[in-house]
Amino acid sequence: MQKQYIKADVILSLGSACRTAHHLRKNHLRLFSSPLDWMVSGDLDIIYDLFCNDFKDFFLNYEVVKHSKKGDKADEPIHVKDVKYDILSIHHFFANEDLKIQSKRVNEQSIYRWNKIKQKLLLAKNIVFIHCGNFELEKIKKFLTKTSLLLKRNGGGNNIKYYFINISSNENLNENEIYIDEFKFNENLHIINYTINDSYNGFIGNASAWKKILKSLKMPLKIKIKNAINDFFIRLKRSCKRRIAFFTKKYKNDINEFH
């Protein structure tokens, strides 16, 4: 793999599942929480629509696709799908609370998080989107072009560089093989596809390959240190809450744990 070094002011996960956000967090590149981080989504047209409407109706129309099993813990997540956007949540809904209350909470959290992200995007000079899934060049080009125009209409600056990094999987490769294809449409729009064997370790995938790829993204050291410290305290808080819940048998659902 020939390394491609990219300066990044903002790095945003676009899914298509939890793996992307997980590896950004593990490599201290995750600046903030995104509504799509722990969702299962794959359609870039739908993601663009959500960007346009600021997630205002996200998860207000939903259906349960997988109930908790009898005997599961009280705070065991259930799988709920946004019917309009065909996006699946596997971490944010629980069997022990009214779904309407939870739907409103997910919606409000998503709007709040997106508004923070949008302000960062409008101020950034180098924006990196990362997606894990099948590589569809024309669809990615269309998404990147439309998103750049959307941000410009909303007050984003000129000459912003946009990068779309896609990580696709080929099970015929060995664990250490990484292939790269780069497409540059103009000075501001870049698409890079990395092909690896990402079938290892369940949802985590090929962690060593992800680490090598993400090393190409350059952020200020002070930001990476801040991200690492924040991640440590969030995980510590989560661990403490679970221990308290275990001994007290009192469960309180907190979707902010999925930061």
UniProtKB/TrEMBL annotation:
InterPro entries, per database record: DUF1796
Classification via Pfam families: DUF1796
Taxonomic superkingdom: Bacteria
Name of protein: Peptidase
